[in-house]
């Protein structure tokens, strides 16, 4: 079955919004029920949204409503993961001794992650809905990072490595029949790489200069891969660095009320804006000259 690319239309916006609101409602109801029922009863109650979401997703798929079916399938995976957490708590397999992210022995969490990844893989294969890839990508990242690191710098190193691997896979996926999945490989890759760099570079002026440089690299990656998610993340990083420098130079913070340097933010962000325009013109001209048909589809 061919992987289809969701198109951003008024209809698809409503389908995504409606399905995700149902998901929030389902998870919220489980949170409410957790305050009124014991673990065993809560596990039983959690079967209700689990069954309802699956039935709705399958019915919509049978009718050919593939976007709506995919959104409900995505929601089903989230409730499935929540159900596993509730079930493990009922069985006493919770992780009460956790000492922080990626620290300690988290075997119940690892089991939940693996079962969540497996369920997401089955759902993605059945519904061919790219958004479900998020569970697989984040689940693999969390599992690997928790298994081989203990927090701090080493976890940031693993995060950076996984992000770069995802970038390489995303580029490969972009050149094959599963290109619609590539968006999520690139998005998660950018978030992981950017998160690792921000973990290291957020204190000194040199750190922020490095972060700004990395943000420009992100924009160039967007031009090379034809994935605008890298440009969006690069813009966010560059604006963050510019905001830091603006606050430092004004020496007040927001709002800029200092009578001596109120002109600084206007100059800084004007320069930033023109810089973005120059980058945009460069990438636009490059795309016009090197527009591969396989990547513009």
Question: How would you describe what is shown here?
Answer:
The protein has helices at 10-34, 39-62, 66-90, 107-127, 133-148, 152-174, 179-200, 205-225, 228-250, 264-289, 293-296. It has three domains: 13-28 and 36-146, no CATH class; 149-200; 205-297, no CATH class. The chain is mainly alpha-helical and 297 residues long. The chain has eleven helices and no strands. The mean pLDDT is 87. It is globular, with a radius of gyration of 22 Å.
In summary, what is this structure?
By secondary structure, the protein is mainly α.
- Please report the number of helical segments: 11
Largest sheet: none
Using only CA atoms, what is the Rg? 22 Å
Any low-confidence stretches, pLDDT <50, length ≥5? none
From the N-terminal CA to the C-terminal CA, the straight-line distance is 18 Å
Number of DSSP strands? Answer: 0
Q: How would you state the average pLDDT, rounded?
A: 87
Counting helices, strands and paired strands, the structural category is mainly alpha
Bin the strand percentage.
under 5%
Tally of distinct domains: 3
Helicity range of the residues?
over 70%
* Topology order in helix (H) and strand (E) letters: HHHHHHHHHHH
General shape: globular
Write the layout of secondary structure elements.
Elements lengths: L9 H25 L4 H24 L3 H25 L16 H21 L5 H16 L3 H23 L4 H22 L4 H21 L2 H23 L13 H26 L3 H4 L1
Helix pairs in contact: 1-2, 1-3, 2-3, 3-4, 4-5, 5-6, 5-7, 6-7, 7-8, 7-9, 8-9, 9-10
């Amino acid at each position: 079955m061919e992987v289809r690319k969701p198109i951003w239309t008024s209809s698809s916006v409503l389908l995504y919004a409606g399905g995700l609101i149902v998901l929030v409602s389902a998870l919220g109801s489980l949170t409410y029920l957790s305050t009124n029922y014991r673990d065993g009863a809560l596990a039983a109650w959690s079967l209700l949204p689990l069954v309802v979401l699956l039935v709705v997703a399958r019915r919509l798929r049978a009718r050919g409503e593939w976007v709506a079916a995919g959104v409900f399938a995505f929601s089903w995976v989230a409730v499935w993961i929540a159900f596993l957490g509730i079930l493990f708590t009922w069985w006493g397999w919770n992780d009460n001794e956790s000492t922080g992210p990626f620290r300690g022995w988290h075997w119940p969490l690892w089991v939940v992650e693996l079962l969540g990844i497996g369920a997401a893989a089955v759902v993605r294969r059945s519904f061919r809905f790219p958004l479900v890839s998020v569970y697989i990508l984040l689940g693999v990242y969390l599992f690997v990072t928790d298994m081989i690191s203990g927090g701090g710098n080493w976890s940031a190193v693993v995060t950076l490595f996984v992000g770069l691997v995802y970038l390489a896979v995303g580029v490969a996926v972009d050149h094959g029949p599963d290109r619609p999945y590539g968006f999520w490989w690139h998005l998660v890759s950018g978030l992981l790489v950017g998160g690792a760099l921000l973990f290291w570079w957020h204190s000194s002026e040199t750190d922020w200069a490095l972060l700004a440089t990395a943000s420009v690299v992100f924009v160039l990656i967007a031009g090379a891969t034809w994935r605008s998610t890298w440009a969006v993340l690069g813009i966010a990083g560059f604006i963050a660095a510019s905001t830091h420098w603006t606050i430092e130079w004004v020496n007040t913070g927001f709002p800029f009320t200092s009578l001596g340097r109120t002109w600084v933010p206007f100059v800084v962000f004007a320069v930033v804006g023109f810089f973005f325009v120059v980058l945009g013109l460069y990438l636009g001209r490059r795309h016009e000259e090197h527009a591969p048909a396989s990547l513009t589809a």
